[in-house]
Design goal:
Strand content: 5-15%
Number of strands: 2
Distance between the termini: 24 Å
Radius of gyration: 16 Å
Shape: flat
Number of domains: 1
Order of helices and strands: HEEHH
């Protein structure tokens, strides 16, 4: 997955932090914890919504996207 993202120029987004722009410093991007790790995922021990970054297979969404782009 990492190699695919690098090849396509896809920048990974953090799942447990949201982008936040400081009004006093609008040129920098800051990240704030969104409360989803300890409060939700870790409590339930369910990380199924996260991508499998170590797997060999591409996610179904990527495969579908690739097949649609090949037809065009």
């Amino acid at each position: 997955m990492r190699k695919y993202n690098e090849k396509k120029g896809i920048e990974p987004k953090p799942y447990y932090f949201d982008e936040w722009r400081n009004p006093d410093d609008p040129e920098l991007i800051y990240y704030r914890y969104n409360g989803k790790y300890f409060e939700e995922d870790r409590k339930k021990r369910d990380w199924s919504r996260l991508p499998d970054i170590f797997g060999e297979a591409l996610p179904p969404e990527v495969i579908e996207f690739e097949s649609q782009n090949k037809k065009k």
